[in-house]
Design a protein that fits this description.
CATH architecture: 3-Layer(aba) Sandwich
Order of helices and strands: EEHEHEH
Strand content: 15-25%
Radius of gyration: 16 Å
CATH superfamily: NAD(P)-binding Rossmann-like Domain
Oligomer: single chain
Number of helices: 3
Distance between the termini: 30 Å
Largest sheet: 2 strands, antiparallel
Shape: globular
Strand order of the largest sheet: 1-2
CATH class: Alpha Beta
């Protein structure tokens, strides 16, 4: 579930690892990022999980697809928003999937338990949530 962030500062590229499935890794990530730069102009929320055959959870006990693909990205975005410079052009991209056209969001099954776990439903829930978060950010 590790994600990476590549930042450019004076022609240098630095890689900062982040585990989207463990919210306790976000503060060290943010501290490192802030030691490198004062602002962010582009964020692409693309990392994620798919094809988990049996229910697994994040470090915080949330179903892994939703916790990683949606909550991890949404939390990272919210933490980074203050670093976006309003005087510059900024962009946040939330990557989703065409699966959302075939699998509607079922809030009753958002954090699927082991008995009702379905890999397609879990993944689709996370991707619909990505789109909803993008719409929220667009307002």
């Amino acid at each position: 579930m590790k994600s990476s962030c590549i930042t450019t500062t004076k022609g240098k590229v630095q890689l900062i690892l982040l585990d989207l499935s463990d919210l306790t890794t976000f503060k060290p990530f943010l501290d490192t990022l802030k030691s490198i730069t004062n602002y962010v102009s582009i964020l692409v929320n693309n990392a994620g999980v798919f094809g988990i055959l049996s229910r697994k959870t994040t470090a915080q006990g949330i179903e892994l697809n939703v916790g990683t693909n949606y909550i991890g990205h949404a939390y990272l975005t919210e933490l980074l928003l203050p670093m976006f410079d309003t005087k510059r052009q900024n962009r946040i991209v939330n990557v989703s999937s065409m699966i959302i056209q075939k699998q509607p969001l079922d809030l009753d099954k958002f954090n699927l338990d082991s008995e009702h776990y379905n890999t397609v439903t879990a993944y689709a829930n996370s991707k619909v949530a990505n789109v909803l978060h993008a719409l929220y950010l667009n307002d």
